[in-house]
Amino acid sequence: MKPAEHFIDLAKSDFVMRIPSATARRTFLYLLRSGLFSYQPGYRLDRRSFDSFLVMLVLSGSMDLDLPTGHLRAVADQFVLVDCYSRHCYGTDTETDVLWMHFDGITARPYYDLITAKLGNVISLRNPSYARTQLREIHDMATDQGGYSEPEMARHITDLLTEFAVENKPGVTAKRSRTIDDSIAYIADNLDQSLTVSSLAERAYMSEYHFIRIFKKQTGLTPHAYITASRVDVAKFLLVNSNLSLDEIRKQCGFSSISILCNTFKHQVGMTPIQYRRQNGNY
Q: Which residues form the HTH araC/xylS-type domain (predicted)?
């Protein structure tokens, strides 16, 4: 859908509305609207109330806000969390691109109170990549013509808000490196690809030595050992819950050959993949 407001570049802006089911309203955090807007200088919105909470990610430019908590400004790579049940105003005097969503749900208010009490309404994350990815995934799911699973959507919204909730106040040292968490997520999503310690260290903007040291400190395993254990875990699941051939399983798990799959699996589990399937599966 195209916005009807003034000072929005219609060629670059779009949004979608979603009506949650009764089950979602009772059970989940749920999406109401999602959009990507390109605001032009002079845009202003002044709204007394709108029954939802709003998350914005400023992609470029800046957004000025007038909220019950005060006058604020958000710039590129900052997130904004707004209680739209209260009066809220925002606008910009520069060209500004914003990815946003309106959401609600049974835990929306507690999340809002927890996050804003610690970080305020304008949120700067030490590493915004994970939260940015979650908000983009929410928007992509919302605009998918095939629809989406409401529990899955709730998971992404929860993950986004949790990312805000676990962020420390400025000046407080984080107990866990977000970079390592991002590496773990990347490994999980790319087990079928070639994963080298050097490439992971490069993605984390660390030397290989420093990356290995930090990774082991936080996970108890070296990156190589973690990747191997993850691949074996996925292989175990597929052996028991599918009828895929060993060759198909080794491809999905990132093993370069069946023999390497079998040797690694036996070393980790104490039996061959076929023995494991016979003992635990139905095939």
A: 181-279
Taking Cα atoms as reference points, which of 68, 59, 106, 112 lies closest to residue 90? Answer: 68
List domains and CATH numbers for the chain: 10-166 (2.60.120.280), 176-283 (1.10.10.60)
Cross-strand partners of 152: none
Token pair in block for residue 104: 């609600």
**Whether the Cβ atoms of residue 180 and residue 218 lie closer than 8 Å to each other:** yes
Q: What angle, rounded to 10 degrees, do the helices at 150-166 and 108-119 form?
A: 20
**Which residues, 6+ apart, have CB-to-CB distance to 146 below 8 Å?**
none
Instruction: Quote the CA–CA distance of 45 and 48 in Å, as a whole number.
Output: 10
Report mean pLDDT in 10-residue bins for the chain, 283 residues: 92 95 95 97 96 97 96 95 97 97 96 94 88 93 91 95 82 57 89 93 88 88 93 90 92 94 94 90 56
Q: Tell me whether residue 179 is exposed, middle or buried, using C-beta atoms within 10 angstroms of its C-beta: 0 to 12, 13 to 18, 19 or more.
A: buried
How far is the C-alpha of 55 from the C-alpha of 116, rounded, in Å? 12
> Which residues are 80's β-sheet partners?
56, 122
Instruction: Name the nearest CA neighbour of 33 among 49, 12, 54.
Output: 54
Look up residue 236 and give its amino acid: K
